[in-house]
Amino acid sequence: MPSNLILFNKPFRVLSQFSAEGDKATLAKYIDAPDFYPAGRLDFDSEGLLLLTNQGALQHIIASPDFKMPKTYWVQVEGDISDEALEKLRRGVELKDGLTKPAQAERMAEPAIWDRTPPVRYREAIPTSWLSLQIREGKNRQVRRMTAAVGFPTLRLIRYAIGPYTLENTGIGQWNYIEPTDHLLKEVNQFEEQRNRKAASPNRRRPSEKGQQRSQGNKVSHGEGMARRKPSTKPTSRPRRK
């Protein structure tokens, strides 16, 4: 049986969805696996690792920042990124929607990767540089906004890793079935057990149950519990509805 997890190396300018949207390329051009859907998103103008699954709990755990699966990006920026800028990224950057959490940011050599179509614009007077940036959040276009905030706009953005999964041995536009790690399966089992406990133990009891548990002399709420009580000659005050 195939695994319930797929690893895909998404090309530039491909939507992270199967449904058509204008004339833009979608996952349907590359992946033929019924009932699989992306666990999280990768922007249209970003490249690299995208995980897909046919299991709801697995999709939630991979996509939700609550489970803190680190995501590692290879980022080409405009200019020779400075030590000061890297330190700001490590401490956290103030964006319009709040301060980012501290990231792991390191300068790196240009990686040996596929050519992008179309290529990144080239300016002879302005150098470019690469950094590895690892975050544990999911703000909209976060990496691009972080590098711009420290003075180095992103030119090319590649997601290299999600947790233990990487692009190693997966060419651009290719996909493979992969096995969830033991740790990920443990997270899935714990999440499903917690969800089942909540479903089996609702926070509120039904009105009929409340009425049955009150003593004959106590006040009861309107509803089925009141209907089951014997008529009383004493006036009974009723609680106001809120």
UniProtKB/TrEMBL annotation:
In this chain, the stretch annotated as Disordered covers 191-242
Please list the residue ranges annotated as the Pseudouridine synthase RsuA/RluA-like domain.
4-149
Q: Which keywords does the record carry?
A: Isomerase
Is Signal among this UniProt entry's keywords?
Answer: no
Q: What is its EC number?
A: 5.4.99.-
Where is composition skewed (Basic residues) in this entry?
Answer: 228-242
EC top class, in one word?
Answer: isomerase
UniProt cross-references to InterPro entries, sorted A to Z: PsdUridine_s_RsuA/RluB/E/F_cat, PsdUridine_synth_cat_dom_sf, PsdUridine_synth_RsuA/RluA, PsdUridine_synth_RsuA/RluB/E/F, PsdUridine_synth_RsuA/RluB_CS, RsuA_PseudoU_synthase, TruA/RsuA/RluB/E/F_N
Its family remark reads:
Belongs to the pseudouridine synthase RsuA family.
Q: What is this protein called?
A: Pseudouridine synthase
